[in-house]
Every structure is written in C-alpha cells, then in structure tokens.
C-alpha cells in the first residue's frame, strides 16, 4: 500500500481557452456542420426564443447561435436601457437586446474570441444606424475589455 496522495490533474487554461475559441470559430464558419451541442434556430426554439425576437436579425447570427440559455426569459428590457452581453459569441442576444432597448438604449457585446467579435461587426454592417448595429469588443469575464 502506498502512502502517496493523488495529485489533481493540471489544467492548462491557455490550451482550454484555445480549444473553446476554435470550436466556436468553427460554428461561426460552418454552422450547419453538426456539433456535440445544438446550434441555430433549433437551439433558439429549444430555449424559448420568440420568433418575433429573431425578425430582422442577420441569418448568420441566428445560424451560428450556440448559446447556453435565454436571458430574456427573466429579464424584460425596456427602451433606453443599457446592456453588456458578456460571451456574446455570434451576437444573437446582443441583437435582440438592441431591438428591445431601441435607439435610446445601448448594447455592447463582449467575447473572448476577437476574430468572432470582428466577424460580428462585419456581418451587421448592413444594419448600421438601425437598432441591430451592436459594437463588439474582445474580452473575458475575468478581464475588462
């Protein structure tokens, strides 16, 4: 019998973050490929997103949606409110929030994948000046953007 105490496996946070970024970047590039998690409109329906919330949202943001919940089930946004969407990914929640708060409100999306953040702004370029134009910033929950 050994008196040694088992050690916890080490976790390389850099590799872990990289793997997450690569997976979500793949969803953004090819949302229809099929993943070990649900995506797109089917996921939005499962989570209780209303069809009218999705009206006018760029189809690419809907198709690459890979969220983990529906923040609008418990938070009813009003015109003029300010929102920070941390972990904004494809930007679906940010775009819905922007529609809800209207031109007098403000929404900023923050995501750890800077490439995804840039792609989100490019995709929404046709919506600039309308409520769906949402600025995106790179950042993590543990650091301010």
* SSE run: HHHHEHEHE
Estimated share of beta-strand residues:
5-15%
E-strand count: 3
Strand order of the largest sheet: 1-2-3
Shape: globular
| Sheet with most strands | 3 strands, parallel
Structural class: alpha/beta
Task: Give the end-to-end Cα distance, rounded to a whole number of Å.
Answer: 52 Å
Radius of gyration: 18 Å
Which quaternary structure do these chains form? single chain
Mean pLDDT: 80
Unreliably modeled segments: 116-131
Helix content: 25-40%
User: Helical stretch count?
Assistant: 6
Overview of the structural elements:
It is a single chain. The chain has 145 residues and is an alpha/beta fold. It has six helices and three strands; from the N terminus they run H-H-H-H-E-H-E-H-E. The chain has helices spanning 13-29, 40-46, 51-54, 59-63, 92-101, 114-123, and strands at residues 82-86, 106-111, 136-138. Strands 1-2-3 form a three-stranded parallel β-sheet. It is globular, with a radius of gyration of 18 Å.
Brief digest:
The protein contains six helices and three strands.
List keywords for this structure.
145 residues; alpha/beta; single chain; 3-stranded parallel β-sheet
Chart the SSEs and their pairings.
Layout lengths: L12 H17 L10 H7 L4 H4 L4 H5 L18 E5 L5 H10 L4 E6 L2 H10 L12 E3 L7
Parallel strand pairs: 1-2, 2-3
């Amino acid at each position: 019998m050994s008196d040694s105490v088992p050690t916890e496996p080490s976790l390389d946070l850099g590799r872990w973050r990289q793997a997450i970024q690569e997976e979500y970047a793949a969803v953004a590039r090819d949302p229809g490929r099929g993943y070990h998690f649900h995506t797109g409109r089917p996921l939005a329906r499962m989570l209780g997103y209303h069809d009218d919330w999705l009206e006018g949202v760029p189809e690419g943001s809907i198709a690459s949606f890979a969220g983990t919940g529906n923040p609008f089930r418990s938070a009813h946004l009003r015109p003029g409110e300010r929102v920070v969407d941390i972990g904004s990914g494809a930007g679906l929640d940010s775009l819905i929030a922007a529609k809800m708060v209207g031109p007098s409100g403000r929404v900023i999306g923050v995501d750890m994948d800077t490439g995804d953040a840039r792609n989100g702004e490019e995709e929404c370029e046709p919506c600039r000046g309308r409520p769906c134009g949402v600025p995106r910033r790179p950042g993590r929950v543990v650091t301010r953007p």
